[in-house]
Amino acid sequence: MNAELCAKSIRELARRILRSRGVIIQLPKHIEIDESLSLTISDLAPSLYFGVEIKIHQNENIVITNIGEAGGLIGTSQPSENEVWIPLDLQTGLNELSLEIIRLAAAGYPGCVGCGGEDAELPWQESKVRLLFD
Question: Does the predicted TM-score (pTM) go above 0.90?
Fold first, then answer.
């Protein structure tokens, strides 16, 4: 697994989450999540109207469903081609995603120019990224 590719995938999913109108995070009950994530984002970027709904499911993956934007999956099974795949340990992947969301919100994303990372302006090509993971 390429750490740089995982970081890019995490950053892409974080950008998608912040561009959405809200997110549903489905995860197994043994995974810990900061339930105040939406409050933290609101404190950092008051102009973002953003909600996070957390649901427990029985699968061994984390499914991110964005409202108005394609989502993603953290885990070993690959989602559809329009969703971002983060092939990491569930807790590590969720922690890294949460940190990236907070970093981007603190920088002013999506209402800023150039703060979304060097690859933010380029179209995301999930199929090419997945080929590089193999």
Answer: yes
